[in-house]
Amino acid sequence: MSMSETDDRTSASGPQRWLAVLASVAVHLAALAMLGLVAVQGWQVFARYVLNNSPGWSEPVTILLLTTAMSLGAAAAVHSNRHFGFFLLAGQLGPRMRCALEVLIQIVVAGLGGVLAWWAWLLWMDGLHIKTAGASFPQSINYLPVSIGGALMLIFAVNRMVLACRPVTTEGGV
């Protein structure tokens, strides 16, 4: 099963459309985080080498933006089925084994997403009272996007699991 075949399954309406919108929002937020990362690092280099006054807030903000981009980008990759997979192996298997492999992969991804969501949330909550050096936000702020990304991975993987063994439809309705 190729990635494009799997993507055809998500072109339905209803919940699939909402999940596609959610994934699109995640991609756009990840892209904004990357742009912010470039801007913050550009300012940090300029301030350090031209103004000789390096801002203390640039490192914690950079780490937050990088964590946000990574977490939301990984979740969106699960939705679009562009994460690590066994696509060559799946292409050589029969329909039943392909379905079983796809379900197994999605169980693993959902489990990892759930673990990330849960433990990152606990770490986020645990450090709310500690302020970050150089920036005025909680030291544990970097765990919030990891928790959100993990929750999205879990949701998208469960959706992929539900769709895994449905027949692929084409535009002609075959």
Strand content: under 5%
Structural class: mainly alpha
**Percent helix:** over 70%
Mean pLDDT: 85
**Gyration radius, to the nearest Å?**
20 Å
Q: Give the biggest beta sheet.
A: none
Shape: elongated
Number of domains: 1
Taking the alpha carbons of the first and last residues, their distance comes to 17 Å
Query: How many DSSP helices?
Result: 6
Order of helices and strands: HHHHHH
Number of strands: 0
Low-confidence stretches: 1-10
Write out key terms for the chains shown.
single chain; 174 residues; mainly alpha; 6 helices; elongated; disordered N terminus
Polypeptide structure, described:
The two termini are 17 Å apart. By secondary structure, this protein is mainly α. It is built from six helices and no strands. Helix 2 runs antiparallel to helix 3 and helix 3 runs parallel beside helix 6. The chain is 70% helix and 0% strand. The chain has one domain. It is elongated, with a radius of gyration of 20 Å.
